[in-house]
């Protein structure tokens, strides 16, 4: 699934009415240093994904001799800690909030609800009764 949020980003940067965003000065395109760190971890994890997967498969293979598995252990330890996928933290792409993330849109529930209320998200419709 290729999610293009460029139009959404334009709306967010022009609108100061997004909850949780407020009137803060933005020096770069990320909300704060926590988000910069998370983006760095995501990038490193994506770059090293194939190699880490291959080495991990060698480590867990019971058929291979112990010497090869030990070499694979040493190889896996050479990767940076930020290349480990477990260190990636789901954060809102707009406000950098770490909790209450709507996974499909990578936004916090607060921002997601605000944008859904004003028809800024495709495929999202408010529930209506009666």
TrEMBL record:
One of its GO terms (cellular component) is mitochondrial small ribosomal subunit. It comes from the Eukaryota. GO terms for biological process: translation. GO terms for molecular function: structural constituent of ribosome. The keyword Ribonucleoprotein applies. Keywords: Ribonucleoprotein, Ribosomal protein. InterPro entries: Ribosomal_uS14. Belongs to the universal ribosomal protein uS14 family. This is 28S ribosomal protein S14, mitochondrial. The lineage of its organism: Eukaryota, Metazoa, Ecdysozoa, Arthropoda, Hexapoda.
């Amino acid at each position: 699934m290729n999610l293009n949020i460029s139009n959404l980003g334009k709306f967010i940067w022009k609108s100061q009415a997004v909850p949780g965003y407020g009137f803060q000065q933005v020096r770069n395109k990320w909300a704060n240093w926590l988000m910069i760190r998370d983006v760095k971890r995501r990038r490193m994890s994506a770059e090293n994904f194939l190699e880490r997967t291959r080495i991990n498969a060698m480590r867990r293979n019971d058929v291979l001799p112990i010497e090869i598995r030990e070499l694979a252990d040493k190889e896996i330890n050479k990767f940076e800690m930020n290349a480990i996928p477990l260190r990636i933290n789901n954060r809102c792409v707009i406000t950098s909030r770490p909790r209450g993330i709507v996974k499909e849109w990578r936004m916090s529930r607060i921002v997601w609800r605000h944008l859904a209320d004003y028809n800024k998200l495709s495929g999202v419709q408010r529930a209506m009764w009666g």
